[in-house]
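Milestone 3.1: sequence recovery, worked example.
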């Protein structure tokens, strides 16, 4: 190393490196000069990034894949959906436990874990029911009296930290918008695909959700802001051993943003429809359009012909169909020194441009 070179901040292991949050983390860490280990199902290496392939649900696979890895910081941004919350707990709690156990030889100083607002809203099986805390949600709220895989992940993190001697942070994001393909929770790309198909078929670009979501205040999380908070917490003593909410910092109403997003996606204003009487879920609106998408891909020379890899109808329906207000307090992170902010409309616009550049939407 020459005199004008500086040492990297550390070696970062990004778990779930091909997902929305993982992609943003790898991008930001490499820009900041870290050595990056990118763990996913299929190893993918690039300048400054060493890919590691492993099955997160297999302790043996993790132990083998990480035998020679020596990360100083771990960024855990992976999860897998199962049919019941008991299965979610077993699988997702197990992934955190086995991943950290496989690193018991490594000089890990900090582990950042992504969870989400189901910490306050409840798991899929009891979502938005019972006595939820008032909005905006604060980090010091008591856990809800339901089994929840986020709680299981936290408990595995706390146990490993006590055992292995690292600090930790938990990052409770709202709907995360960012760049990825084949992701199970991808509102940004899903809405862009809905717009493209609606335009092709001359159908209305319909808001699919509830009257409450249409009219209430809401917020979302840009993946880049989430990545920056995770890196901040991993490297600033003020971020150690704390949970933090993470959203963009602005609030909006879908009745304001929906027509603006439609304009950015090139939808004819005459085709834009808001809430009218009852929710109109995307899983019903967009059923049976797989061949229409393939035809659209062929006509525009796009890169992904499988509709299921670019649209997660069920997840966007779940977010926009809630009959409750969801707003998140960012005061704790602000007081600790994390002041990053992102305008949500611009975050969507930049994301649509990135998807166009990657030939994923017309």
């Amino acid at each position: 190393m020459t005199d004008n070179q500086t040492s990297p901040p550390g070696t970062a292991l990004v778990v779930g490196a091909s997902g929305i949050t993982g992609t943003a983390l790898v991008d930001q860490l490499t820009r900041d000069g870290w050595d990056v280990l990118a763990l996913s199902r299929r190893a993918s290496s690039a300048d400054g990034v060493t890919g590691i392939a492993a099955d997160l649900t297999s302790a043996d696979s993790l132990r083998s894949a990480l035998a020679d890895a020596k990360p100083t910081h771990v960024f855990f941004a992976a999860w897998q959906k199962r049919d019941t919350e008991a299965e979610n707990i077993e699988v997702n709690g197990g992934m955190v436990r086995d991943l950290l156990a496989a690193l018991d030889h490594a000089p890990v100083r900090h582990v950042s874990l992504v969870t989400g607002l189901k910490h306050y809203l409840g798991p899929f099986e009891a979502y938005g029911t019972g006595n939820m805390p008032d909005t905006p949600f604060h980090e010091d709220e008591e856990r809800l009296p339901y089994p929840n895989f986020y709680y299981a992940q936290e408990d595995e993190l706390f146990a490993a930290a006590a055992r292995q001697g690292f600090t930790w942070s938990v990052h409770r994001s709202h709907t995360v918008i960012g760049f990825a393909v084949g992701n199970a929770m991808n509102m940004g790309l899903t809405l862009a695909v809905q717009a493209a198909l609606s335009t092709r078929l001359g159908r209305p670009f319909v808001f699919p959700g509830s009257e409450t979501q249409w009219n209430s205040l809401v917020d979302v999380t840009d993946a880049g802001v989430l990545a920056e908070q995770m890196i901040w917490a991993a490297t600033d003593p003020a971020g150690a051993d704390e949970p933090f909410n993470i959203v963009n910092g602005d609030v909006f109403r879908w009745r304001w943003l929906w027509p603006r997003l439609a304009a950015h996606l090139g939808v004819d204003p005459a085709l834009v429809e808001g809430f009218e009487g009852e929710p109109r879920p995307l899983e019903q609106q967009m059923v049976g359009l797989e061949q229409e998408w393939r035809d659209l891909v062929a006509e525009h020379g796009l890169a992904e012909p499988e509709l299921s890899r670019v649209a997660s109808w069920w997840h966007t329906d779940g977010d926009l169909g809630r009959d409750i207000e969801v707003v998140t307090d960012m005061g704790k992170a602000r007081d600790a020194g994390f002041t990053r902010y992102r305008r949500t409309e611009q975050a969507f616009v930049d994301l649509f441009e990135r998807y166009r550049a990657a030939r994923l939407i017309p």
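The longest strand covers residues 110-116. The chain has 14 helices and 13 strands.
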